[in-house]
Every structure is written in C-alpha cells, then in structure tokens.
Amino acid sequence: MNQITGVRLKEVRNDVCHLFDLDVFLPGYKMLVNVSSSIISLLSKEQGDVISQRILTETEIRVALPLLLSPACCPQEVLHACYDCPYEILLQALFSPHTSSLRQWDDLVLEHCQRLNVARQQRAQRDEMRGVYNALFSLRQKLSQLGLDIRSRREGYYLSALASE
What we know:
The protein is an alpha+beta fold. It has 6 helices and 8 strands. The protein has helices at 58-69, 76-84, 87-95, 99-121, 125-128, 130-144; strands spanning 8-12, 15-21, 29-34, 39-44, 50-55, 74-75, 148-153, 156-161. The strands form 2 sheets. A 5-stranded antiparallel sheet has the order 1-2-3-4-5, covered by helices on one side. A hairpin with a 4-residue loop joins strand 3 (29-34) and strand 4. Helix 1 (58-69) crosses helix 6 and helix 3 (87-95) crosses helix 4 (99-121).
C-alpha cells in the first residue's frame, strides 16, 4: 500500500476502532471506523464531535479500509484482495505490526495482481472486479453523505473531498 495517514488503533468496550486523519483531502476532520460494528463516523478535529455516521456492510468496510489507509491511490489488486480474502486475515494484514502478516499480505496482493493481469488479457477484468465495483458504488453513496468521494485513475482508486456544486 502507498501511504498510511495517521491511523491509530483504539479499543473501546471490546470494539476495535481505527482513527484516520483526513487532512490530506478534508482538512479539520478525522474518520473513526468501528470495525466491530461496521460504523464510520466523521469527527471534527477541534472538538472531537461526531458530525455524521453511516453503517456499512462488511463488503463496504473491506473496501473502505484500504482506501483510508492509502487515500492517494489504492491499487485495484489491493481492493480485489481485500474483497476476496477472509475478513479476519484482512484485518490482521492491514493492522498487524508483525512482518509475517505483512509478507503474507504482500503475497496475496501479488496473487491478485496476477489474476487481474490474466483477466485483462482475456478481456474479463470487468467480470473479475464486479464485486469490488459494486462495493465501491454503494460505498461512494454513503461516503458522499460524509463529504467524501471515491475517484478512479488507471492505477486504482483514491479518496477526495466531494466537489461542491
């Protein structure tokens, strides 16, 4: 993954939460992700007040976490691996400090990169990525209510502030 933006792990009443700094694209705000209950909360940095919350499905959380960890660009193969691997392994890979977990995760991402390359050659990438695309679509709707957007580029997907109209 490209870059981690100020993520901190908190455990509140047996809930596992991750706090992400959104200053790169939404100055003055943080995102609290309660992994245990699949709730995302937009927080004001100054007061720490909850501005807005949304409940996500497990699939949406699977796609949201890598986007928040690599907001500048999350490669398609990472999203595909997050969508496809068991949830416990995903959480361990994304948030464990152990190098063995990171090595396993890198191997899994490489495997998904190869799968996507084969799918591209067979002109079947759309079919291979269908689940990820569906998750991105529904997540985009929920994040837009929090002032965020998901955009795409050739290398992958990235978060940005919602364009004001």
